[in-house]
Design a protein that fits this description.
The complex is a heterodimer. By secondary structure, chain A is an alpha/beta fold. Chain A has 14 helices and 18 strands. The radius of gyration of chain A is 26 Å and the shape is globular. The chains are: A alpha/beta, B alpha/beta. Chains A and B meet through helix 11 and helix 12 of A and helix 2, helix 3 and helix 18 of B.
Chain lengths: ~450, ~450
């Protein structure tokens, strides 16, 4: 069985699955129950001068019958006294010495205040510190959170203050609400940070009630932008993680965050260079129990692939992400439709006609409009509808790809509801691989 | 005889077999729809309802738009959503069958949109008034569809029916657990609100003559359907306790119940026979026997209907033909003869023939013949220059035109008896044909 033991900038945990700093890691009781369920670590809900929260705090996006594809929150950092949080961290560390407990911290931007909170956090027995420079709502209006993480100089400065006194590893949590996340990652490195956590939540307004015209969430008739997370943000998180993981000036371990809900998501973040993983929304949706499948699924997958430990595959996919200009312009694929699997929905046909390159055809019909016209005529002329045979797709409903015209864009394959029906297959263009960069160099666009 | 059930029991035993979808259920189901292009379900609908279009509107919460998309193609969208044999039409054509998935519940989704439409009291618009008056004879599905389409074209329409209520078999003849008269009448009201005049309780050819109608109207549309259930033509048929299927169904629907035998014998193998059998059970019959002269394979009733009946404990007697009904004043038994199937005839259908000496008696106190409807030959012969074939009006199925340019016809009186949705489709097409004819007449 694969070994999931994780070492992140000196912080050890039995597996890479940590609770992210958020409601699931709000108190000692929750964290201990999470550890019992199998979580390897927890980043405590951000500790600082206790705040007052509003009600309500969350809103979400549903998709295709699924609840909470994306979650938005306007909740602030902990509303519990600093000493209570630290006392509970001590308690948890005493009972769970092998698990990672990281104190997330956020205080006003004063050197002494940071020194004080760092000392108290480390005295409580926390294994590491995560500086919350990413919170995009509320706290940023008070000069904290993303107000720090959006300015490289502030990031370097405060990281430096913390490093003056810290004895445990210091992680900087990055905000995605910035044009180039690498500038902040580099600034953290400059301040001597030991690791990075990415990404924090994305500025968002999830939606507006069409009866009351009230944006969500509703706080006494007003709303405020919040931070977006959950499955919807995973692709954005993967990109930003790749950006910092592959930047030669950063070279820091990354704790991946952003829509991780399954072991598959976890494996993807690890393949893009992450060392540990943090989860919040999925736990808020389903509870701590989801970690069981995350551990088992990742471990089974690693066994299948012959990976004994996380380091065996960490960052394996990073070299596969390059600039567009380094892609082979002479590589060509085309769509092939398997008539035996085609169910005749013709979604690929209309997608190609209306949304792509007009190279999928229905035999003998010049345009989609003509096809609809023919159907209408046929119905009007066929008073007695014959009983339908559901077992096979009529040949006239199986579209055909014009491989000469097909640009290999993937759209038909993406819209096809049937697994394996459309495959994208390589065509030999007879030309050697050539990139845009190479063309520019040769001066032949 | 079993006394009639109480109104509460009636409600319970005739509860709808396809209950409505809740709002969340409807959205979840609508979301499953793939939104096929040139969708097979739409192609399988005789009225050509754009199914993915109305379903996607349900998914976005545009229920009003969804209802209009349905009514655009099928004015009787409400009754069709309840009575259509969807598994051999739209749902049968769903591409998900070929992906080993449950087809989309198109019928129930359509009902969802239709229920919204009627709950909101929404109305349809008629077209700008233009010259031309049409009489629709019969107030069943074909006439209602024709009348609504004619109003859309701005033509004047009067519908005649000898019954006190409009809707035809939708009001009087569909099993109660599929469609209630109150729902059928909502559709009638919708058509009335489009400006159609209804003259009910007026039998054309009796209270008002055909000549009179010909004088008053430019075009006459025949949507008269078929006649009463055919008699069995065997001794004992006029004993008390013999009630034909259509009369039986209309009776229990109109009265909210009916006297029913303890042991009921239904004769026939069509969907109406199944409806009568299922209703007998629901009304309290202890035993219901269905006698059919061919085997199960030849039965014209839909498979799913037969299955439903079987689940309700209906006993099927295949290859069984009644030869006499016995009793003093009332039915006591039905005498039958066993049949065997001969070689296929020219149409490929195997003809049944009696096995000599195989007669037997089945004791029962009620017999419900359901061997198909008679043709309205007597009435149709009054309409001049109509061509009839096997008692049905010969009409062009694309336009409803008959041999007489002033007569159009559609529905059961043309096709010999098919689904409600077929009548709607034909009635609608006939209205388009009529519109063109009137244009030629008045310009």
């Amino acid at each position: 069985m694969a070994d999931l033991t994780t070492r992140f900038a000196g912080i050890q945990s039995p597996n890479p699955f940590w609770l992210a700093s958020g409601p699931p890691a709000n108190c000692g009781d929750q964290v201990m129950r999470a550890f019992d369920a199998g979580w390897g670590g927890a980043v405590w809900k951000t500790i600082g001068e206790p705040i007052v929260n509003v009600s309500s705090r969350y809103s979400s996006i549903d998709w295709s019958g699924q609840r909470m594809m994306g979650l938005n929150n306007i909740e602030l950092i902990t509303d519990r006294p600093i000493e209570t949080n630290f006392r509970e961290i001590s308690e948890v560390k005493k009972r769970y010495p092998r698990h990672a407990v990281i104190a997330s911290l956020m205080v006003e931007s004063k050197r002494e205040t940071w020194h004080d909170i760092v000392r108290r956090a480390e005295d409580s027995g926390a294994d590491g510190l995560e500086l919350n420079f990413g919170c995009p709502h509320g706290m940023s209006e008070r000069g904290m959170g993303s107000a720090v993480g959006q300015v490289p100089e502030y990031t370097t400065l405060i990281t430096g203050w913390v490093k003056e006194v810290a004895r445990t590893p210091v992680l900087i949590k990055l905000t995605p609400n910035i044009s180039d996340i690498r500038t902040i990652a580099r600034a953290a490195r400059l301040g001597d940070a030991d690791g990075l956590s990415a990404i924090n939540t994305i500025n968002s307004i999830t939606g507006i009630d069409l009866d009351s015209f009230m944006p969500r969430p509703d706080v006494a008739g007003l709303s405020s932008h919040g931070g977006y997370c959950g499955p919807a943000v995973k692709p954005i998180a993967l990109h930003l993680v790749q950006q910092i993981s592959s930047d030669p000036e950063v070279r820091l371990p990354v704790s991946g965050i952003g829509g991780i809900a399954t072991w598959r998501d976890a494996a993807e973040f690890l393949l893009l260079g992450c060392t540990s993983l943090q989860v919040c929304t999925a736990v808020m949706h389903y509870g701590f129990r989801i970690v069981e499948d995350m551990i088992e699924g990742l471990s089974n997958w690693m066994d299948e692939k012959g990976f004994r430990g996380l380091e065996d595959f960490r960052g394996l996919s990073l070299p596969r992400v390059v600039d567009w200009g380094a892609l082979d312009l002479n590589y060509k694929i085309v769509a092939r439709i398997d008539p035996a699997l085609c169910i005749g929905c013709d979604l690929c046909y209309i997608a190609c006609w209306d949304g792509a390159h007009q190279c999928i055809h229905i035999e003998g019909v010049p345009t989609p409009e003509r096809l609809l016209e023919q159907s209408r005529d046929r119905i009007a002329r066929t008073p007695l509808v014959p009983r339908v045979d559901t077992s096979t797709t009529p040949a006239l409903r199986i579209p055909r790809v014009d491989e000469q015209e097909c640009v290999g864009c993937n759209l038909c394959w993406l819209v096809c509801p049937v697994e394996g029906c459309i495959t994208m297959e390589r065509i030999d263009t007879g030309r050697p691989a050539e990139t845009w960069h190479e063309r520019i160099t040769r001066g032949t666009r | 005889m079993v006394p009639p059930v109480s109104s509460r029991e009636f409600e319970a035993s005739f509860a709808e077999i396809h209950p409505p979808l809740g709002p969340h259920e409807a959205i979840a189901e609508a979301t499953r729809c793939l939104y096929c292009f040139d969708a097979p379900c739409t192609n399988a609908c005789p009225t050509h309802i754009d199914v993915p279009r109305f379903i996607k509107k349900i998914a976005t919460g545009n229920l009003t738009g969804s209802a209009f998309a349905i009514l655009d193609a099928n004015i009787l969208g409400l009754s069709c959503s309840r009575v259509c044999p969807v598994n051999v039409l739209c749902e049968g054509a769903c591409v998900l069958h070929r992906y080993h998935k449950r087809p989309i519940e198109i019928g129930r989704l359509q009902r969802h949109a239709m229920d919204h439409f009627y709950a909101r009291g929404l109305r349809l618009f008629e077209g700008e008034r233009r010259r031309g008056r049409v009489a629709c004879i019969g107030a069943g599905p074909a006439s209602l569809a024709c009348a609504a389409e004619l109003r859309r074209q701005g033509l004047g329409v009067t519908v005649f029916d000898k019954r006190p209520l409009a809707g035809g078999l939708n009001t009087y003849g569909v099993a109660e657990y599929k469609l209630r008269p109150s729902d059928s009448l909502k559709e009638v009201e919708l058509v009335r609100a489009m400006g159609v005049e209804f003259r009910l309780g007026v039998e054309v050819g009796r209270e008002v003559s055909i000549e009179e109608i010909e004088k008053q109207f430019d075009i006459i549309f025949l949507g008269v359907g078929l006649g009463p259930t055919l008699p069995l033509g065997i001794p004992g048929e006029n004993l008390a306790g013999v009630v034909d299927a259509l009369r039986f169904i209309a009776g229990y629907k109109t009265n909210g119940g009916a006297y029913i035998g303890r042991r009921v014998a239904i004769v026939g193998g069509g969907n109406t026979a199944i409806d009568a059998a299922a209703a007998s059970r629901r009304l309290g019959a202890e035993e219901v026997h269905l006698l059919y002269r061919r085997s199960e394979k030849e039965m014209p009733a839909f498979e799913h209907e037969v299955e439903l009946a079987r689940q309700q404990g209906i006993r099927f007697h295949w290859l069984t033909q009644p030869v006499a009904i016995h009793g003093g004043q009332e039915v006591e038994a039905i005498e039958c003869v066993r049949m065997e199937l001969g070689p296929p005839d020219q149409k490929g259908r195997r003809q049944p023939r009696p096995i000599e000496g195989s007669n037997f008696r089945l004791s029962c106190d009620m017999v419900i013949p359901s061997i198909g409807q008679s043709r309205l030959i007597e009435f149709l012969s009054q309409c001049r220059r109509l061509e009839l074939r096997h008692g049905c009006v010969v009409a062009d199925l694309e336009t409803g035109r008959t041999a007489n340019p002033r007569y159009f016809a559609a529905g059961d009186c043309v096709n010999g008896g098919r689904e409600v949705v077929d009548s709607v489709a034909e009635g609608k097409r006939a209205a388009v044909g009529i519109g063109k004819a009137i244009e030629e007449l008045h310009g």
